[in-house]
Design goal:
Blueprint (H helix, E strand, L loop, with lengths): L1 H23 L18 E8 L3 H9 L2 H6 L11 E9 L2 E11 L5 E12 L2 E11 L2 E9 L4 E2 L20 E10 H10 L4 H4 L5 H4 L1 H14 L1 H6 L1 E9 L4
Antiparallel strand pairs: 1-2, 2-3, 3-4, 4-5, 5-6, 6-7, 6-8, 8-9
Helix pairs in contact: 4-7
Length: 243
């Protein structure tokens, strides 16, 4: 028992040390200008599912400052993580976006992580800690370029542009307060994606809670556009980015 405890402690220190070394050299992202939503200004061209190993996924998460703001690597259910590469058009140029759907072991939350090959309106990485709640997907934390925004239970409408914000939370961030889970799932199926995981559609969430989580993770990775379309209410908040 003592040996297992020491091993577990060693692994934790290794994780924190790895992240610390990475954070020292973490890239500086450009300033996010005004209240932006990067998904509104890109055009989806095609997608392909990536078959990353669990080791690959683990090291991706452990070296992601945005992920550490949202959750911890040891709380992830690695058996059901989904990774999809999307090709997008932005400002007349083709770029890529890696979308990762990450279920947590508590079976109540998932993390959505989106990383662009080039900044979109200043956004290089955007991530969400999402709670599955009564047919809704409710963001609890939002990370942008390493910063963190706490989405409160009440939908905030603090700003329309950076000029409405003051230091140190001087960047206006647009976010969705809650998503219609069933709409997002059915939209994704209609687009010809996630059929093998979601099966009959949103009704999977009524009969199979575990299957519902796997389906939601698949939709997060494959159908970011459906997630966006399913937003029930948009909000905004003043935050710091890249901190």
């Amino acid at each position: 028992m003592q040996r297992r405890t020491l091993l577990a402690t060693g692994i934790v220190f290794l994780l924190v040390g790895t992240y610390g070394l990475y954070a020292v050299g973490y890239p500086q992202y450009p300033e996010v200008k005004d209240c932006v939503n990067p998904f509104e200004v890109v055009k989806h061209l095609n997608s392909v599912q990536e078959n990353w190993s669990r080791v690959h996924i683990f090291f991706k998460l452990v070296t992601s400052r945005d992920f550490w703001k949202l959750a911890k690597p040891w709380n992830v259910d690695y058996s059901n993580v989904k990774v999809v590469k999307h090709v997008l058009e932005y400002n007349g140029e083709n770029i890529t976006m890696i979308a990762i759907g990450i279920p947590l072991k508590d079976k109540k939350h998932v993390v959505a992580l989106y990383e662009f090959s080039k900044p979109v309106q200043g956004v290089k990485v955007r991530g969400y800690l999402i709670e599955l709640s009564q047919g809704k997907l409710v963001p609890r934390l939002i990370s942008v370029n390493g910063g963190k925004l706490t989405a409160l239970s009440n939908c905030r409408h603090e700003c329309k542009s950076n000029s409405d914000c003051s230091y140190p939370r001087e960047f206006c961030t647009k976010y969705c307060c809650s998503y219609d889970r069933d709409y997002a799932i059915d939209c994704c199926l209609a687009a010809g994606r996630c059929g093998a995981v979601c099966g009959v559609g949103a009704t999977v969430c009524l009969v199979n809670p575990i299957g519902c989580i796997a389906c939601t993770v698949c939709v997060i990775a494959n159908c970011y556009d459906c997630i966006e379309k399913s937003c029930l209410e948009w909000g905004s908040g003043c935050e710091y980015h890249g901190a």
